[in-house]
Structures are given as C-alpha cells and as structure tokens.
Automatic annotation (TrEMBL):
Protein name per the record: Single-stranded DNA-binding protein
Gene Ontology MF, one: DNA binding
Keyword vocabulary terms for this entry: DNA replication, DNA-binding
Cross-referenced SUPFAM superfamilies: Nucleic acid-binding proteins (SSF50249)
Length: 79
C-alpha cells in the first residue's frame, strides 16, 4: 500500500499493490507490481499467468497489457 499526494487539485489516493516476479525468459525473474482493489486480499504464493481480460489492442493494432486493472490467474498444475 502506498499513499500518493494529489496533483492539480485532485485529492490524494491510496494505491494497493503487491510485489511479484515475472519470468520473461531471461536468466532471472523481474520484480514487478500487481495492483489490488482496496479490499482485495493479496495473492497467495504460486505460479500465475495474466488473465486474457488484461489485454487490449492499442491504436496501432498491436496487443498490450492494460495500464490499470491487470488480473492474474493461477496456472493449472501440469499432470
């Protein structure tokens, strides 16, 4: 949780987030932030993938992650 002061006359706001590590194919995972809703509990430890609703097509026709509202879902264990 972090408190951000308001800008341009807007009230301050609280941002709820959780640290996570993304495996992007490099040698080590990359530290990232996952935003949470105000009353949402933190995600438990585990392996997750980005939910399909977290992607948009931008004005250039390319796919990208939403700036806000990214959701993750647990990976199904391999059988």
């Amino acid at each position: 949780m972090s408190n951000n002061p308001g800008k341009d006359g807007k009230p301050p706001r609280t941002i709820y987030e959780q640290d996570a590590y993304a495996h992007l194919g490099g040698r080590f995972p990359t530290l990232m932030k996952v935003q949470l809703q105000e009353s949402q509990p933190a995600y438990p430890a585990g392996n997750y993938t980005v939910h399909s609703s977290s992607f948009i097509v931008n004005k250039f026709g390319s796919i990208e992650l939403k700036r806000f509202g990214m959701m993750i879902q647990p990976l199904e264990p391999a059988l």
